[in-house]
Amino acid sequence: MSTLREDVAAAARRLAHEGLLVGTAGNVSARDGDVVAVTASGVTLAGCRPADVTVVSPAGEVLEGELKPTPELALHLALYAETSAVAVVHTHGPYSTAVACVLDELPVLHYQQLLLGGVIRVAPYATPGSPELAEAVRDALADRRAALMGNHGSVAVGASLEAAVENALLLEWLATLHHRASALGTPRVLTEAEQQAVVGAAVPRGYGTPKPHEEDA
Ligand SMILES: [Zn+2]
After folding, report:
1. Which of 42, 62, 123, 180 could cross-link 136 (Cys pair, CB 3.0–4.6 Å)?
2. CA dist 211 to 26, 163, 203, 208, 217, Å?
3. Do residues 111 and 190 lie in contact, with contact meaning Cβ atoms separated by under 8 Å?
4. Is residue 72 annotated as part of the catalytic site, yes or no?
């Protein structure tokens, strides 16, 4: 369990270093079996230590740690209860949050977005920490590895903590891309056929996973 707390703390520090977690805003969790390790409320995430991570049961009961879990605990627990996610990252990344203040969805401008499942939905705004927010985000995440939260931020999930962190970073990059492309003009969106062609070609090649160079031949 202490390794899980260390891993969550390291992920929080990395996301803070990358500019996605600012001050105490945002939270990170990971599940191992039926325990969840989640960053605590009010912790400065750039300096997150294992002691700043609290271990809870799926019902939210504190099992290990001195600090109160994040106020967004309901969001994390809802995603573990109802999806196969093993890790959840919630950020107020500047570009993701900006997009979530304007758009209803982030269209597919770049094929890398297909790693997150396609068009990224923006969950309607709901009070932070509320069950309504948890429900809206769960719905927006259907068949996706990331979602935006209206006038609030972003959520990324993954089959590992590392994957959830990478998905959060990718979402922020895509939101930045949308912002910059929109400053130049009206971005061209990849058609459904163009997206399907990428998915059809990438799956057999194992796109996005390291592989020996012989397979490229
Ligand atoms: Zn938040």
Report:
1. 123
2. 33, 17, 13, 9, 12
3. yes
4. yes
For the beta sheet containing 153-158, the strands, ordered from the edge strand earlier in sequence to the opposite edge, are: 62-64, 53-56, 35-39, 27-32, 87-91, 153-158, 146-149, 120-123, 105-106
* Ligand 1: centre distance to CA 12 (Å): 14
CA gap 105, 172 in Å, rounded: 14
CA of 184 to the centre of ligand 1 (A): 30
pTM equals: 0.91
**Do the beta carbons of residue 63 and residue 35 sit within 8 Å?**
yes
Q: Model confidence over 76-135: pLDDT tens digits?
A: 999 999 999 999 999 999 999 999 999 999 999 999 999 999 999 999 999 999 999 999
Catalytic choice (72, 105, 194, 215): 72
